[in-house]
Design a protein that fits this description.
rod-shaped, 439 residues, alpha+beta, six-stranded antiparallel barrel
C-alpha cells in the first residue's frame, strides 16, 4: 500500500511541474535573488544619522546698545527697525544748539589765530608780502584778509619809522661835514693868525704897531684856538650821535622782530588752548550724533518721532552685529541630545532661501547647553550653538545675505548606520514591547 502511495505522490508532483510554466520559475528565481541582494546591500550600505532642530541665526558678538551721551531733543531719525547699517553710520542726531554755537565760535577763533600766526611767521622771515593761501575755506578767508591788511600796515609803520631814523642819521652826518668844514677853516685861520701875531710882535717892540692892535690879534688867535678845541668836542659828539642813529635803526628792527616773536609765542599758546577746547567741543557735538559702532541690523529703536526729549545715558538703539562669523542657535529635543557633542558637523538650511536653489551652510557644533530650557509653549529643549564655516554668504555671487534673526533648520550628523538597522528598528521596538501589557 505504501508503495502505491509513493507512486501516486510522484505522479502528482510530476503533473504539477508539467502544469507550471518555465517563466514563472524564472520570475521566482529573480525575486529571490533580488531579495538576497537587497538584504546584503541593506546590511552593508551606510546612511547618516541626523538629528534635526529648529534654530535662528545669531551673531557671534553680543548685541550692541547705542546710548545718548548728551541730553537733548531728537532732531533727526535716519534709520528704522530692521534696517542694515554700517559702522560709523549716523543713526540719530540730537539737537544741541548751544554746543553747535560754541563749536562755531571756537572754529572761528582757531581760524583767526592760524591766520595771525601765518602773518607773524611771514614778518619774522622778513617777507615782502603776505598772500592768502589758496586752500583757505569760507571761515578762514575773512581772517586772512584782515591779516593781509595788518601786514601792510605794520610794514608801512616800520618803513616810516626806519625812514625817520635814516633822516636823523643823514642830518647828523651833514652836521658833522659842516662842522668839519668850519673846523678846517678855523684851523687854517689859526695858522695865519698865529703867524701874523708872531710877525707883528717885532714891530710892536719897535713901537711900530700900537698895543691895541696887538691885543686884537692876540684875541683873534685865542678865539681861533678855542674854536679848534670846540671842534674836537663837537666832532666826538657828532660821531656819537651818528653811531646812536645807526644803532637806533638796528634797535627798531630788532624791537619789531622781538614784538613779532612775542606775538607768535602768545598766539601759539592761545591756539593750543583753543584747539583743546575745540576738540572737547567737537567731541561734545559728535556725541549728539549717534553712530553705529558695528555693521549690523537695527533690532530696536526707542524713539519714534522728532522732538522727543532724551536723557544722557538713555538706551536709544539696539543693533545686532553682522560679521564674517555667524552662528546658529538651535533647539534640540532631549530625546535626541544624547549623541550630540561639540565638533560634530552640521548642515544649515536657511528658511528664507530655497536650499535646492541657493544651497546650504556648513557648520560645526560649538557648544551644548548644560541643562534643558522650557519655552512659552512648555516645550523642553536643549540649546546648542553651531558655528558656520562659510560665513554669511550663500552663493554670494547672487548677492544673498544672511542676517541675524533668520530662522533655519539645523541637521547635525551624529553618526552612521546601515539601512538594515534602520528598517529593523521598528521591528525590534515591537519585539521589545510585545507581550508586556499587564492585562
Amino acid at each position: 500500500m505504501a508503495r502505491e502511495e509513493l507512486k501516486f505522490a510522484a505522479d502528482a508532483n510530476a503533473a504539477i511541474e508539467r502544469n507550471i510554466p518555465r517563466g514563472a520559475w524564472m520570475v521566482l528565481f529573480v525575486i529571490v535573488t533580488l531579495l538576497v541582494v537587497f538584504g546584503l546591500w541593506a546590511a552593508i550600505a551606510q546612511v547618516d544619522q541626523i538629528t534635526r532642530g529648529q534654530g535662528r541665526v545669531i551673531s557671534s558678538r553680543n548685541t550692541q546698545v547705542v546710548e545718548s551721551l548728551e541730553p537733548g531733543i531728537v532732531a533727526e531719525i535716519r534709520v528704522a527697525e530692521g534696517d542694515l547699517v554700517e559702522k560709523g553710520q549716523i543713526l540719530i542726531k540730537i539737537d544741541d544748539t548751544e554746543s553747535n554755537s560754541r563749536l562755531g565760535e571756537l572754529r572761528r577763533q582757531k581760524a583767526a589765530l592760524v591766520a595771525e600766526l601765518a602773518r607773524l611767521s611771514a614778518q619774522a622771515d622778513g617777507a615782502d608780502a603776505f598772500e592768502i593761501p589758496e586752500d583757505s575755506d569760507a571761515i578762514a578767508l575773512p581772517f586772512y584778509q584782515d591779516q593781509v591788511a595788518v601786514f601792510l600796515a605794520d610794514r608801512q609803520n616800520l618803513h616810516e619809522q626806519l625812514l625817520l631814523r635814516r633822516r636823523q642819521l643823514q642830518q647828523r652826518e651833514q652836521s658833522l661835514l659842516e662842522a668839519h668844514a668850519t673846523a678846517k677853516k678855523n684851523a687854517d685861520g689859526l695858522v695865519l693868525a698865529e703867524k701874523e701875531f708872531s710877525l707883528n710882535q717885532e714891530l710892536h717892540k719897535r713901537k711900530a704897531i700900537p698895543e691895541i692892535e696887538m691885543l686884537r690879534m692876540e684875541r683873534q688867535v685865542v678865539s681861533l684856538r678855542g674854536d679848534v678845541e670846540i671842534w674836537k668836542t663837537t666832532r666826538e659828539r657828532l660821531l656819537a650821535e651818528i653811531e646812536e642813529a645807526k644803532t637806533q635803526i638796528d634797535v627798531d628792527r630788532a624791537s619789531f622782530l622781538a614784538d613779532v616773536h612775542r606775538r607768535i609765542s602768545k598766539a601759539s599758546s592761545d591756539l593750543a588752548i583753543v584747539e583743546q577746547a575745540l576738540l572737547e567741543a567737537e567731541n561734545k557735538v559728535g556725541r549728539t550724533e549717534m553712530r553705529s559702532p558695528v555693521d549690523g541690523v537695527i533690532n530696536r529703536l526707542s524713539v519714534s518721532s522728532l522732538g522727543e526729549v532724551v536723557q544722557a545715558g538713555a538706551s536709544i538703539v539696539e543693533i545686532v552685529p553682522i560679521d564674517d562669523k555667524l552662528q546658529i542657535e538651535a533647539r534640540i529635543s532631549p530625546q535626541d541630545i544624547a549623541f550630540i557633542r561639540p565638533g560634530l558637523p552640521a548642515k544649515i538650511r536657511i528658511s528664507a532661501y530655497d536650499y535646492t536653489k541657493y544651497g546650504t551652510l556648513s557648520g560645526v557644533v560649538d557648544r551644548i547647553g548644560a541643562d534643558t530650557l522650557t519655552n512659552e509653549n512648555r516645550e523642553t529643549f536643549y540649546r546648542i550653538i553651531v558655528n558656520t564655516e562659510s560665513g554669511g554668504d550663500v552663493q554670494s555671487d547672487r548677492g544673498i545675505k544672511i542676517i541675524p534673526g533668520m530662522t533655519a533648520l539645523v541637521e547635525v550628523k551624529t553618526g552612521e548606520r546601515s539601512i538594515l538597522e534602520y528598517l529593523m528598528k521598528p521591528v525590534l521596538k515591537i519585539r521589545d514591547m510585545a507581550f508586556r501589557d499587564p492585562r
